[in-house]
């Protein structure tokens, strides 16, 4: 309901008043920033004047260092204030444009006072310091706005629950300090405003949804009780959006203790990372850390292998169906993803405690000075009850001691003598200083010369042994690749550890395949997580204890083994996991009944909470009605009522015609106001071809690969698996023929591809369309003929 003119004027006057105050504040803050800036310049300029530099003796040197440190602290304190003030200025500039987006009038029980609360991206207090002109959307009372229609309502305040009555709930669209629209709303937050927001063009960056957060999303955003939050929701139901708002909420709620760099988000690929990277800065917060799982694997694998990229793995699976070895690969991927394989790895680890360790021998100047066998013997001489990482620590100490003895053997060696001759005068000076410092000089010059010679020899040896010692400290003598390989090279080991029935039927072939790949120095993606797990268990896990919150987006693509690794890696972190089992496109998840069941088993019952989102906001009702029938279980997906054209299905006689149809479709779409048009292909190799063919037909387009970290508006050609998480105004599905999409896991790929569309969807195919489109009711699409 639109409010009347008088009220509108009053509201605009209030906006004007707030904007005036904000402008004043900006003015005074700017002055402060200038003041701090000139202080910083002064400190930098006079830095050395303020410091008394004197290195005459140790006391003076310590004094000098202390005074440098003190000056540096003053400087960094000023720099911090400058950064804070700068950040505040940015937020104020945003507030000035649009100071708030909502208002609630609330009367607490037994209180006659009716409080009007205006919600914006940040709080703003008037110059008296007592009056909140704008409340931060994350403040406890702001929750009322997202959770209740007018009527009885309550919210969780720091001291307990406050109940009362919500008399009014109003939404504003304010731009450049002018109210553009204003509505009093009922149950859902402003269908009208949501209509407007969702009807806009797709962006190459995700937007914040702060003014239209829905109740079910608010519950996720503000959940501070559970250690594991699982958010399962259909495509476009706002999972990622809720996650980003949740991070902003947590940074506000725990602002004294939680910093943005203590929050990590695992995202599916670099494109997605850049897609979501603007949300937090838009809300005035610093970005969290972002990573991808392959990135996390990189460091522990090191240079031992080239790790296969998950998208390479997927490309192989999607393009080599029916070829020899395909079924083995599939079975291997599935088995190695699961907790059964993790259990086998755990048993293997305990067995390694008694036998089977593989060590590399140590070489010095090209000669073996300690064999792998000797190291192994020493390792197994330690008590069995000591953990493997601790035994390795003892072993390292022992080896370092042996190296010292080895070094003394070379003191008089000819090669050392030769190298001493080549030393420069600095080295001699160093040896002299050392002996002098340690009081080794006597009156006997003959003896002194011998001592100098020995000190020089020691220097030469230290230098030569330094690399070896470093390698030993880093446990490089441990042959993890060989230890991992052994599990597959000797299948009898696994048969000793678990019953044959617990292994997959193809185990022998899987083992052969794994060994062949490892020997080629390639770590298949399915082996990367187990390999890193084994390595970290052996050497002592590299835990990251400073991280407090881990977010995993597109979590349906993670294997149970990966979840278990993440859980171990971040022992003090709470986990928020967001996913849609219907978009599980990795082969390891085929046939998985409940994608997140294994995950919840990692936490005690009371620590876990599952939220389900069924409303789909991204696509028009017509698109959702089409895409949900691609799934076997899509009935419960509920579209937001926003309308657009029905998806169109178009048949082509052959690929040549298909290409021309798609080019024609792009031309047609360009005449509308679309910012992004995506041609979604099944694989990267198909996308590469389409990209070139379209160019040959004179259609300008860009292609997206797994290395692309940002995309520009216009026409892009993209493989479906890279389009995860992002959205486009219009989607053209390049080829939805039965040859392309008919295997089980391809159903989800097709669904993922089609659900990227916000306003328009066009599905083209050659000859026979995918059987996954057979359940879509005829009324949900139009059949279109296109001219050749
Ligand atoms: N409460 C909301 N208000 C306005 N827009 C919303 C809201 N929730 C979601 N959206 C919009 O819906 C679209 C889809 O949201 P989002 O990408 O977060 O969904 P998702 O569940 O992560 O999707 P997918 O699983 O397909 O990646 C985005 O354009 C987002 O801005």
Structure description:
The chain has 788 residues and is α/β, with parallel strands linked by helices. The protein folds into four domains: 1-97; 289-354 and 480-613, no CATH class; 362-474, no CATH class; 623-784, Rossmann fold (3-Layer(aba) Sandwich), CATH 3.40.50. It is 46% helix and 17% strand. The protein has 27 helices and 26 strands. Strands 1, 2, 3, 4, 5, 6 and 7 form a seven-stranded mixed beta sheet that branches. It is globular, with a radius of gyration of 33 Å. The mean pLDDT is 89. The chain binds adenosine-5'-triphosphate (ATP). The site of adenosine-5'-triphosphate has 24 residues, from helix 4 and helix 6. GO terms for molecular function: 3'-5' DNA helicase activity; ATP binding; ATP hydrolysis activity; DNA binding. One of its GO terms (biological process) is recombinational repair. It comes from Alicyclobacillus ferrooxydans.
How is the topology of this model organized?
Layout: H1 5-46, H2 58-97, E1 102-108, E2 114-120, E3 124-125, E4 132-136, H3 143-147, E5 151-157, E6 160-175, E7 178-184, H4 191-199, H5 215-221, E8 228-233, H6 239-253, E9 263-266, H7 270-276, H8 279-282, E10 289-291, H9 293-301, E11 306-307, H10 310-319, H11 326-337, H12 339-352, E12 362-364, E13 367-370, H13 372-381, H14 388-409, H15 414-422, H16 425-437, H17 445-473, H18 480-489, H19 491-497, H20 507-519, E14 522-523, H21 525-539, E15 549-552, H22 560-569, E16 574-579, H23 597-600, E17 608-613, E18 615-616, H24 621-627, E19 638-639, E20 648-652, H25 655-670, E21 676-681, H26 684-696, E22 702-703, E23 714-719, E24 728-733, H27 744-754, E25 757-766, E26 782-784
Parallel strand pairs: 2-4, 8-16, 8-17, 9-10, 9-15, 11-14, 15-16, 18-19, 20-25, 20-26, 21-23, 21-24, 22-23, 24-25
Antiparallel strand pairs: 1-2, 1-6, 3-4, 5-6, 6-7, 12-13
Helix pairs in contact: 1-2, 5-6, 11-20, 11-21, 12-21, 14-17, 15-17, 16-17, 18-20
